[in-house]
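Postdoc handover notes: sequence design on the structure in folder B. Input tokens:
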């Protein structure tokens, strides 16, 4: 059995192999999705348009709350990545 823990916390003993594997897979997916978002070409387009720093955050928030804005579903996110 593997032990799992995180910084500042005691390891959690007693993980079954399938639980440890599922945990590792979820962390790997999180890393992949994070990389896809941070490396997306949209950020280059924003920079080319002069939208950076706090203005980028403000623009994103406006898009999220704009009339007619629809949250992405999982399939949209996977396709965009």
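Designed sequence:
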């Amino acid at each position: 059995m593997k032990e799992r823990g995180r910084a500042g916390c005691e390891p959690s003993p007693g993980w079954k192999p399938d639980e440890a594997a599922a945990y590792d897979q979820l962390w790997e997916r999180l890393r992949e999705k994070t990389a896809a978002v941070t490396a997306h070409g949209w950020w280059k387009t924003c920079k080319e348009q002069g939208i950076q720093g706090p203005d980028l955050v403000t623009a994103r928030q406006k898009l999220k709350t704009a009339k007619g804005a629809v949250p992405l579903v999982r399939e949209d996110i996977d396709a965009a990545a």
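Context for whoever picks this up: The first helix runs from residue 17 to 38. Don't rerun without checking with the PI first.
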